[in-house]
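Dear colleagues,

I hope this message finds you well. In preparation for our joint manuscript, I am sending the TnsA endonuclease (Thermoanaerobacter italicus) sequence together with its predicted structure, so that both groups work from identical material. I would be grateful if you could confirm receipt.
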Amino acid sequence: MNIGKYNTDWSEEKYRRFLKEGRGQGEGKDYKPWLTVQDFPSKGRCHRIFGWKTGRIHHLFTDSEARFFYLLEWEDSVIDIREHFPLLDYEDWVQDREDLRFDLFTDKKSGTPYVISTSFLITVKNREGNVRYVARSLKAASELEKRISLERLEIERRYWEARGIDWGIVTNKDIPLVKARNIEWIHSARYAYADAGLSEGDLAELVEAFLLRLSQSSESIRKTALLFDKDYVLVPGTGMFLFRYLLAIKKIEVNMDEPIDLNRPAFSVDIINATAKKGGKAYAGG
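The corresponding structure tokens are as follows:
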């Protein structure tokens, strides 16, 4: 989705309207990001993605933000993702700010200061049930050479340090593209069974049948899915949807750090039981 031209003027009136709309407030499904894709133009492509964790639409301005979001969705320890989190109470937390160049972040026309926001505030719960927060700022690697970007990041750093919250910078070079693209490919399948023409009852029955077929088939994943459609007289593509769905709910497992090979034998796919523990690299700092 490409963003067209929008009114990007900033004023005290607009600031008050954002607050009245509840932006930057709430958690989970009730959270409203400070910025949405309708508010400001993007240098790249913007994304509106329905979140697994939150059950709401997330507003992401770049491909890097979307890819990092997919990585967070994949992490079992992540229970909430709040994008474009505003530092509205900055003065309450940061006393040492005299040397910070807030004047660089002021609307030239109205003179109204912009609200600095951090790309992601992430809620993480460990296996013992302890909850902590992690803040991450997404920046293109090339942006780190610009003074204004460094100034903004220093403003963010001091805020999160004052709050005692783990903060860090993530660039496009830090994001494993293959894994992010794999998650993107399966992501929409998790809640799209109705779009595939299936009821919850249909889905439950077909999942068990497809798992059995996967475990016994020496054909490729692709061909196994095609034959499954034919044998069960299903709409073409249903078998591949089931494969994506099972990956999304982690009922089956492939190496997500490598391109998903649909030509590998179906029986080589790992079928995971409900109590299996997941490992792997964490992208939320834990």
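For the figure legend, we might mention the following. The chain has two domains: 12-175, 179-271. Residues 159 and 217 are 55 Å apart (CA to CA).

With kind regards,
E.M.
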